[in-house]
Design a protein that fits this description.
By secondary structure, this protein is of the alpha/beta class. The chain has two domains: about 250 residues, Type I PLP-dependent aspartate aminotransferase-like (Major domain) (Aspartate Aminotransferase, domain 2, 3-Layer(aba) Sandwich), CATH 3.40.640; about 100 residues, Aspartate Aminotransferase, domain 1 (Alpha-Beta Complex), CATH 3.90.1150. The chain has 15 helices and 17 strands. Strands 4-12-11-10-7-5-6 form a seven-stranded mixed sheet, with helices on both faces. The protein has a four-stranded mixed sheet with strand order 1-2-3-15. The protein has a four-stranded antiparallel sheet with strand order 13-14-17-16, with helices on one face. α9 runs parallel beside α10. The longest helix has 28 residues. It starts with 10 loop residues before the first helix and ends in an 8-residue tail after the last helix.
Length: about 475
């Protein structure tokens, strides 16, 4: 499948990388930065510790109690929560920056980012200040009334994007549900008398748009949809990147909107080509079909651009956002052009919680930081460095098919299941995710990750690759 390679435009950084990598390899005994704790499984076997007997006994007792706490929490989760998640067997207690700590005191380098949510890491000072200050003023009033943070956030989103107006939701799937409704309402609003309005949709292979019934209908994985069928009818799935098939179907006049991720996250970290997106844009313009970019995971700085589609110079009619926008608090947003907004009337859609003052003030703090050009440039640089480092360290392994991605959304495509290496990384103090068909290691760290932390992560990934051979 063709992919688009987006350059950060900083060649000096590659030179810097080459110098660093040479020095890095020449100092093999310094693979782990001094300010990062060695994961227990990677401590050299000849390491010696001087431990007082009394202290050792007390530490053993504390360790037993902490492990007991982990066991109790996991058992209670199984007893009281609906079993929709196969959770990792750790109980996280606190975090700071790119580090997480469990109830046993173990430290983890977080490259999962709460599934691409914690763009500023954990407990960012400016984010925390925004939350605490707003919580002391006003938390929730519903959308019956006006509130200042909501209006300010909408103004900032409009000013920094193609959009003219914003609708707030509580999550990515809610944002996509709203986009579905807005698309159908727009087609009815603009349909001339005597014609049947377009009501169908196009989505693509490997896509993920959410788990509520409408968004689920647009999600390609059959196993997600089958238990809940019948889902919303009228969705046509095409191969991601197949522009001729999409254009042919759009021109039939039955498609209300085309939903596409400029960079697929859950699907396996695939980037669209400019030619593909331009073909969609042209066909939609010809027919009145709406083009919807789902940037729930790839948007808001993760690609090194504020919005992933900016790299292509192609703009949608609707864009959906969510994951990183409020720094870990629940929010979704639908950005639309004026022509789409003009089709929506009072009462057509709504939400009790969406766009509350507390959430919007937190989102303003996140948006203000990430939209800084220097911040975005750093994301691009770190993404290039990370990919090159991974290629150097992992590229020779026969199980590694490809290392792809843009900015700090990176996928390591394997010819076997990624689950063993995800578990091995976790046991070694590194949290990563899977994607695709379970064969892709997904890396979506906080955008504030340092070069030193990137190097540490690459080392752990390299040293745990052997588990893919079954040599546990």
């Amino acid at each position: 499948m063709a992919t688009t390679h987006i350059s950060a435009g900083n060649t000096s950084y590659k030179s810097s990388f080459n110098n660093k990598f040479t020095q890095f390899n020449n100092n093999s005994n310094k693979h782990f930065p001094l300010n990062l704790h060695y994961p227990r499984s990677l401590v050299p076997p000849n390491a010696s510790l001087k431990v007082d007997v009394g202290t050792s006994s007390r530490n053993v007792d504390e360790s037993v109690e902490k492990k007991k706490k982990t066991k109790e929490v996991i058992e209670e989760e199984a007893k009281y929560l609906v079993g929709t998640y196969a959770r990792a067997p750790i109980v996280l207690e606190k975090g700071k920056g790119c580090k997480l700590y469990d109830v046993e005191g173990n430290e983890y380098l977080d490259l999962s980012g709460g599934i691409a949510v914690n763009a500023l890491g954990h407990a960012d000072d400016d984010w925390l200040k925004a939350v605490v200050e707003q919580a002391g003023l006003l938390t929730h009033v519903s959308n019956i009334y006006h509130s200042i943070p909501q209006v300010e956030l909408a103004k900032r989103l409009v000013a920094s994007s193609f959009a003219d107006r914003v609708f707030f939701a509580n999550s990515g799937t809610e944002a996509n549900e709203a986009a579905i409704k807005f698309s159908r309402k727009y087609q009815k609003h603009t349909c001339t008398e005597g014609k049947v309005p377009a009501t169908e949709f196009i989505a693509f292979s490997n896509c993920f748009h959410g788990r509520t019934l409408g968004a689920l209908a647009l999600t390609s994985k059959v196993q997600y949809r089958t238990p809940f069928e019948p889902v919303m009818p009228g969705v046509n799935f095409l191969e991601y990147g197949n522009a001729p098939a999409a254009v042919e179907l759009i021109r039939q006049g039955k498609i209300a909107a085309v939903f596409v991720e400029p960079i697929q996250g859950e699907g396996g970290i695939y980037s669209a080509t400019k030619e593909f997106l331009q073909s969609l844009r042209n066909a939609c313009d010809e027919t009145g079909t709406l083009l919807v970019f789902d940037e729930v995971q790839c948007g808001l700085g993760r690609s090194g651009f504020l919005w992933a589609h900016e790299a292509y110079g192609i703009f949608p009619d609707i864009m959906t956002l969510a994951k990183p926008l409020a720094g870990g608090l629940p929010i979704g947003a639908v950005l639309v052009t004026e022509k789409v907004a003009s089709a929506i009337n009072y009462g057509d859609h709504g939400s009790t919680f969406a766009g509350g003052p507390l959430i919007c003030n937190a989102a303003l703090a996140v948006l203000n930081k990430i939209s800084n050009p220097n911040f975005l440039s750093d994301v691009s640089k770190k993404g290039l460095y990370f990919k090159e480092l991974l290629k150097q360290k992992l590229g020779g392994n026969p199980h590694v098919k490809e290392i792809r991605g843009v900015g700090l959304i990176i996928g390591i495509d394997l010819d076997v299941s990624a689950s063993p290496i995800v578990e091995a990384c976790r046991n070694s103090g590194l949290l990563v995710l899977t994607a695709g068909k379970g064969n892709v290691v997904r890396l979506v760290p906080p955008l504030i990750i340092t070069e030193q932390e990137i190097e540490h992560a690459a080392n752990i990934l390299s040293q745990t690759l052997h588990v893919l051979d079954g040599n546990n």
